[in-house]
Amino acid sequence: MDVMPKWADVVLVPIVSLVLAAFLSALLILAIGESPSEALKLMVEGTLMRSAGWGYMLYYTTNFIFTGLAVSVAFHAALFNIGGEGQAMIGGLGVALVCLFIPWPHWSLAIIGASFGAAIFGMIWAGLPAYLQAKRGSHIVITTIMFNFIAAGVLNFFLVGALKPKGSMDPATANFPTSTHLPTFEDMAQILGIEKMFRSAPANVSFFIALLACVAVWYLIWRTPLGYEIRALGKSGPAARYAGVGSVKIIMIAMMISGALCGMMAINTTQGESERLILNFTEGAGFIGIAVALMGRSHPLGVLLAALLFGFLYQGGAELALWTKIPREMIIVIQALVILFTGALTLMVRAPLERLFLAVWKG
Questions:
Q1: How far is the C-alpha of 293 from the C-alpha of 305, rounded, in Å?
Q2: Alpha helices in 77-205 (DSSP H)
Q3: I need a labelling partner for 36 at 20 to 30 A (CA). Which of 105, 134, 154, 351 fits?
Q4: What is the pLDDT of residue 1?
Q5: Model confidence over 169-200: pLDDT tens digits?
Q6: Bridge partners of 149?
Q7: Residue 184 forms beta bridges with which residues?
Q8: Which residues are CB-contacts of 333 (< 8 A; sequence separation ≥ 6)?
Q9: Highest mean pLDDT pick, 28-42, 181-195, 207-221, 319-333
Q10: Is 97 within 8 Å of 155 (Cβ atoms)?
Q11: Which burial class, exposed, middle or buried, applies to 137 when counting CB atoms under 10 A from its CB (0-12, 13-18, 19+)?
């Protein structure tokens, strides 16, 4: 019998995990001769006390929301989608084709077209390993990892060939037309008469698309028959199949939705920030999405909060690397500790808490 209440599993376990990760991070910072309290103060001031810091944090958060939701949908079907990087890359290709070759009159129409392009391309790329899992028995972890490398090759092929402008030396497409450029938070602040807000920060309107995606995933998973079938297959495959749930269909649908969400990350990075398609635009967000989903317990609200945390870590880490002697690699180690405790070592944290609640319950 599970004696630990739901709120403790959703809230208390992640908080304890974060405290442990923060404690070890503080020891590492002390070991290199820096002050943990000063490092935390600098991260908070650089991220939360400046509007530009908020802008960068929300930019990173947008990426992590999309990839975290993608991994969460697959998790609910007991599928481990590690192909977020590749699906986002191919989604970026979809965004580039839509923005470059369709004459959009206004960004509000362009973002709709780019969203469909990113989602469809990401969906197709995730559908291929899903088919291999559902019909051929290939393990989804292996195939999605391998498809990341294939996606990188496909992207490189287009950026050094068909989509590279003549005379350019950069492995990138031409700049997208001005009518496809998305308003940034700085642009929106200026409209409201706030001149000094979010200066030069890349956060843009795709953040609101990510919030809508959170609502859509919540409604899909917990309020629709399809979501019920996805969760049923994830909880017990044999029982779901006995009840008439088609495992092949659900595997395909769950993975294709997951791929579509990963692909839509490219709206933020490609259409919103770079305004062209470049190499390595994903910057590891597909893998961070796994930690975000684990920490958020595969619930859209949890994913949103976890994405905000990792957005804070990314921007705060950049501040530390810029203003202290803490090397950039140490920031990656700190992020890895957060991932380790909130993901891989969750059971290590959960077990003592279960014993504590059991003791209280018996007492």
A1: 10
A2: 84-101, 107-136, 140-159, 185-191
A3: 351
A4: 47
A5: 889 999 999 999 999 999 998 888 777 778 88
A6: none
A7: 204
A8: 25, 28
A9: 207-221
A10: no
A11: exposed
Question: pLDDT digit string (tens) for 198-234?
Answer: 888 899 999 999 999 999 999 999 999 999 999 999 9
pTM of the model: 0.92
List beta partners, residue 278: 172
Per the CB < 8 A criterion, the answer to whether 140 and 97 are in contact is: no
More confident residue, 272 or 193: 272
Q: What is residue 278's three-state secondary structure?
A: strand
Q: How confident is the model at residue 363 (pLDDT cuts 50, 70, 90)?
A: low
To which residue do tokens 């009518």 refer? 179
Rounded to whole angstroms, how far apart are CA atoms 82 and 153? Answer: 17
Please provide the DSSP assignment of 320-349 as one string.
Answer: HHHHSS--HHHHHHHHHHHHIIIIITHHHH
Which residue's structure tokens are 């809230």? 11
Tokens of 134: 């559902």
How is residue 90 written in tokens?
């191919």
